[in-house]
Design brief:
By secondary structure, the protein is of the alpha+beta class. It contains 10 helices and 16 strands. α5 crosses α8. The protein starts with a strand and ends in a 15-residue tail after the last helix. The structure holds zinc ion (ZN). Zinc ion binds next to loops.
Length: 412
């Protein structure tokens, strides 16, 4: 079976919006309560708290906090489950200590794991998504699907728009991947000047960064400047315990400009996602290629280097590779991640000699051994294509079992 995710914009009416706000609030409350109890348990016993104990306790909590009964109890359990996962990741040293969710964080969400329905528009009716305790919410269902709805995640973006992200099990058995052969393999190198360079048997293709990103970044700068001139006052009050509580009050204009800025961010995110989907779709549909080789980017480490950081987050390289993997898997093709220590940009693709130093500024270089002139990105893509020709021993030396890209859903 394979799980596919679809995003739809939803239009809740006034009372539904109130109910959604209650759901966001309660899910957040349960999440934070879980974190604080798990934290106390850890401090007291040195062990992680058991999730099921908490879920049993949740039933009793509803007596003390009756407003929890107003919302879908499964959404609360999902909140506890998410908090548990965050805490376990921290406990097993995969992530930082989870932080409490704030009411003031602009992006709010909750999940419904069951009893959701997607009603596609018929002649004379509009599309709806049915959520437990909330009812049928009007939705623009721009894509039809067949399969069982698994989980629906409802999100309110900072721009104030609501979306539902629907996970669907389409019941299809994933195709067996093609056999890897060099002829039908292409290498993809991600760069700064050119977003992606693809080398296959058909030659070299350079995919430029989309120009809208640069244009929008100027608009963002202007809006950020405007926002910084708007009135925002921060005061500190003392509560009964004598603790200082921060209170922020903003002017109406501040709120207006903040929403405009959030809308710009959202527009950029959507256009970037569109661009990624178009480019990856075209690559996957290339009938001459059945395997793509990419480098192991170790994205977290790279974002720390600020030369690359902007290029990576501008184009969304992580999302690009994730989208590519999903589509390749569905088409029965392969995505191969080269070893983390494979020096793809430093090898001569003609003779294999390694160039000892290569700065990010050097776009062209020539091989000291055979004298060939190389374009930096093209050479890297060629080397990545050659990865499938390496022996297992060579692959192992370059970290064959390096950490591959995480298989998480594409952030919206
Ligand atoms: Zn050479």
């Amino acid at each position: 079976m394979s799980i596919v995710s679809y995003q739809f914009r939803i239009y809740p009416n006034t009372s539904q919006r109130q109910s959604l706000i209650d759901h966001f609030g309660c899910a957040r409350w349960v999440y934070n309560r879980y974190l604080s109890e798990a934290h106390d348990c850890y401090e007291a016993t040195g062990k992680a708290m058991r999730r099921n104990d908490f879920i049993v306790r949740l039933v009793h909590l509803k007596k003390d906090y009756p407003w929890l009964k107003e919302v879908n109890s499964q959404s609360l359990q999902m909140a506890a489950r998410n908090a548990d996962r965050a805490f376990v990741n921290f406990f097993e040293k995969r992530a930082k200590r989870p932080r409490f969710k704030s009411k003031h964080t602009c992006r709010q969400s909750f999940q419904c794991p069951q009893h959701c329905k997607v009603l596609f528009p018929e002649i004379g009716t509009k599309g709806h998504i049915v959520l437990p305790k909330i009812g049928a919410v009007k939705a623009i269902l721009h894509r039809r699907f067949n399969g069982t709805v698994k989980t629906v995640t409802v999100v309110r973006e900072p721009s104030g728009k609501y979306y539902a992200s629907v996970l669907v099990d389409n019941g299809l058995v994933a195709l067996a991947p093609d056999i890897i052969d060099f002829e039908h393999t292409a290498g993809i190198d991600a760069g700064i000047k050119t977003a992606f360079t693809v080398v296959s048997q058909n030659g070299t293709e350079k995919i430029d960064s989309p120009s809208f990103l640069k244009k929008s970044s100027e608009q963002l700068k202007k809006q950020q400047k405007r926002l910084s001139r708007c009135k925002r006052t921060v005061t500190f009050k003392e509560n009964e315990k004598g603790e200082k509580i921060k209170e922020v009050s903003v002017s109406k204009r501040y709120e207006k400009v903040r929403q405009e800025l959030a809308r710009t961010h959202e527009r950029i995110r959507h256009r970037r996602k569109d661009w990624i989907n178009q480019v990856t779709r075209r690559l996957v549909n290339d009938s001459q290629v059945t395997t793509y080789v990419i480098e192991d980017l170790n994205l977290k480490g790279m974002v720390k280097n600020h030369h690359l950081a902007r290029a990576i987050s501008d184009v969304g390289i992580g999302n690009f590779y994730r989208a590519l993997r999903y589509k390749l898997e569905a088409a029965g093709k392969n995505l191969v991640v080269a070893g983390r220590w494979f020096p793809s940009s430093k090898l001569c693709p003609e003779c294999g000699t390694k160039k000892e130093s290569l700065t990010l500024r050097e776009r062209q270089w020539s091989c000291a051994h055979c004298g060939h002139e190389h374009d930096r990105d093209e050479a890297a893509a060629k080397n990545l294509r050659h990865w499938v020709k390496l022996t297992e021993i060579e692959k192992h030396r370059y970290g064959r079992n390096g950490r591959a890209l995480e298989r998480e859903a594409i952030p919206f």
